[in-house]
Amino acid sequence: MTDPHPRTHRVRRRLALATAAVAAAGIAAVSALVFTSPAQAATTLGASAAQTGRYFGAAVATQHLGEAAYANTLGTEFNSVVAENAMKWDATEPNPGQFTFSGGDQIVSWAQARGMKVRGHTLVWHAQQPGWVQGLTGNNLRNAMVNHITGVANHYEGKVFAWDVVNEAFEWDGSRRQSNLQIQLGNGWIEEAFRAADAADPTARLCYNDYGTDGINSKSTAIYNMVRDFKSRGVPIDCVGFQSHLSAGDNLSSYQANLQRFADLGVDVEITELDVGGSGSGQAATFDTVTRSCLAVARCTGITVWGVTDKYSWRNDTPLLFDGNYQKKQAYTSVLNALNEGGSTC
Ligand code: G3I
């Protein structure tokens, strides 16, 4: 596919991104030398993550921002947000060419007022497509996808630091999910989506995001091979999101190694939708493993939990860091301790 993008522009973007990566690595290296004594230990998740140049975020549902405890917990504990649903295709383009950004704008404004970063989720996904998309075929779907990416990424340019450009395109066995996108557009659709996002917002980090990639397995290896191919051909991809929807006690023996092998390809890695079904010490231990794995990989830029409180989780197995009364759980303490230890060398 011909590059729709003037080379000079992409060269400038690559240079800017390379500079940022070097700076981030430098910050991480310097931060790692910082002695974090108990007296210096941060008291919130976001502040602690920032000590190693990272973010710690939460997925946000606009309908809860008016609830004081929700807003206070979100604004106090986290330094990054992502819209749980408000920036998805069905929410942002309910009718062809008619964009509605009110929900996403509300989250962006709320976060910017508090100096918080904003992740974008998600430009193209087989789920939560508006009805008018689901029947499209061939170039009609291709044009609709590119137009959607362009409209949304244009709108949020400069406000979103990273986009989940494509979400959940692979099956457990490493084959492509046979979605309307795959069937109608063929194997090139993911590359086309990334190139459209790069043209629309050259400042944002462009990520591929998926679940079930919590170690070295058939699915994560298929994604690894795609990223390696993209990097070899200069397809604009900057990061991979590991959703990490887990259960207490899951086997995470290759979790860190998997993150590291992606980082070694030259992309950032992000934990994008972390939640751990369960409770008590078992849940806390799994959160601890994920947190320490991210801290051990220099290009792991941050962690997002998929919600603020168990009360509003999409799951019914108390998977988050705050309970239904916004009380800190054992898992919260485990994560904060890991974050506070993560930047220290002694
Ligand atoms: O907005 C409608 C509302 O108008 C209607 O009254 C209500 C009842 O039918 O439904 C509302 O839509 C719901 C939407 O969340 C917004 O609340 C959908 O039914 C519901 O299915 C949807 O669930 C979301 C789910 O993605 C959709 O697949 C969850 O909140 C959200 O946490 C979940 O998040 C996904 C990530 O985007 C991708 N990774 C997996 C993760 C968990 O499934």
Automatic annotation (TrEMBL):
Known EC number: 3.2.1.8
Catalyzed chemical reaction(s): Endohydrolysis of (1->4)-beta-D-xylosidic linkages in xylans
Gene3D superfamilies the record matches: Glycosidases (3.20.20.80)
Alphabetized SUPFAM superfamilies for the sequence: (Trans)glycosidases
This protein's UniProt keywords: Carbohydrate metabolism, Glycosidase, Hydrolase, Polysaccharide degradation, Signal, Xylan degradation
Family affiliation: Belongs to the glycosyl hydrolase 10 (cellulase F) family.
Protein name: Beta-xylanase
